[in-house]
Known about the structure:
By secondary structure, the protein is mainly α. The protein contains 7 helices and no strands. 16% of the residues are buried.
Amino acid sequence: xxxxxxxxxxxxxxxxxxxxxxxxxxxxxEYFFLQTTIEDYNKQIWAIKALGITGTGxxxxxxxxxxxxxxxxxxxxxxxxxxxxxSQWKHFQRGFYPRVGEIEAIxxxxxxxxxxxxxxxxxxxxxxxxxxxxxxxxxxxxLNSSVFISYVLELIFLLVAWKTIPLI
Length: 168
């Protein structure tokens, strides 16, 4: 049996399809914009981390050359400053993750598309939950292990230098 659609029905169907395609295109553009933004944050975070390590290294070298332990102690301000700065950037970056996950879920559920799935695929590969266990600046930024480990090590090096360089 063949069902013939009236012109108005086919027009509505075509219009709905155009609307769906338009929304799908907007989601795709938003998704890749968010991914690019997240990658841009990563570039800035690496620059911040590099500056912090360079500053700490310079203070360590200066303290050892000058044989002044106080320089190492005062130099502890450098990793603390960069730790706070990087943690703010990481916290801002993580603000984009929920929307990326939401778009991936929309594409999977409503459009039956398996991709793009950059965020969920990465999380699955590294066996990490897409939902953070804790939320907020302290957990997303300051105590995020990818942020704090290098700065804690820098502080340890500076404090060891402070304790081992003889007082003059």
